[in-house]
Structure prediction request, 164 residues.
Amino acid sequence: MGAIPTKTGIVSVVLSKLVGLVRRMNRSGKRIASRKAGSLSEEDQPMKYALLIFSSEDGPQLSDAEVAEMYAGHEKFGRELGSLGKIHGGAELQSSATATVVRVRGGETITTDGPFMETKEQLGGFYLIEADDLDEAMQWAAKIPASATTAIEVRPLVDHSSES
Prediction:
């Protein structure tokens, strides 16, 4: 297996595998959405949420057994969401050291290498899910294997579908 990855690296690799699973589900013709458009009143429509996984890139190294457990947990989580039609995507993010920040000031584009801000925890990956409400989204966030050692931010997406 080579070098033992950090917790952030594990989450990134597992999310990459999950995105592949979601793509395979899409290609196989299975429905990802759990409802037909217009089947519920607007106020009863499930919302989409981003489950943002934050962790320290300088965290402790994981053993091979911990790596295997993390993979298995994310695989199980992804399959559960997929079987219910609640997953809409997810992705791994490379290390924050690979980030480039773009700002436009006075018509001039300014780029800076590195993360937007120096913090102890960085965004390592995310899931996009559908949930009936914030309570359900938080229940899903608590099931992410990384939630035992990292922070999961639950944030609703803005729905522009009803705008003209």
Observations:
- Confidence is low (pLDDT under 50) at residues 1-8, 10-41.
- The first strand starts at residue 47 and ends at 55.
